[in-house]
Write a structure and sequence with these properties.
Pfam families: Csp (PF03860). This is Four-helix bundle copper-binding protein. By secondary structure, the chain is mainly α. The protein has 4 helices and no strands. The longest helix is centred in the middle third of the chain and has 22 residues.
Length: 116
């Protein structure tokens, strides 16, 4: 639910998914940096960082009911799907959980963008 603006309620499920995904990506990135094969994860680590950034921005845009919020949601969905694909390349629990969060966020963002 919107904290001070009930008009935001229509975005809340997607805002929550974006915030969860950003957190999952940051946690996964931190854990990937400690893995013995960190060099092999370079592309994944970069994608995790980018995904966390776009998720935070999408949540912010929805929170202010910005004009281009749905456009950002569409981009966020694309980036989350790409991040899930990268994470799926590694079999660690943290990468698999992150991939799941990314897919959930992508689905929510796609639904928001389609409702535009």
């Amino acid at each position: 639910m919107g904290i001070v603006n009930k008009a935001i309620d229509k975005y809340q499920k997607c805002i929550d998914a974006c915030n969860r995904c950003a957190q999952a990506c940051m946690e996964c990135m931190t854990m990937c940096l400690s893995e013995p094969d960190v060099t092999a994860r370079k592309k994944c680590i970069a994608m995790l960082n980018e995904c966390a950034c776009i998720c935070k921005e999408a949540a912010s845009f929805m929170s202010m009911d910005a004009k281009y919020a749905m456009d950002l949601c569409k981009l966020c969905a694309t980036m989350c799907n790409d991040c899930a694909t990268e994470c799926d390349m590694f079999k660690d629990i943290h990468c698999q959980k992150c991939a799941d969060e990314c897919r959930t966020c992508a689905n929510e963002c796609n639904m928001m963008a389609a409702a535009k």
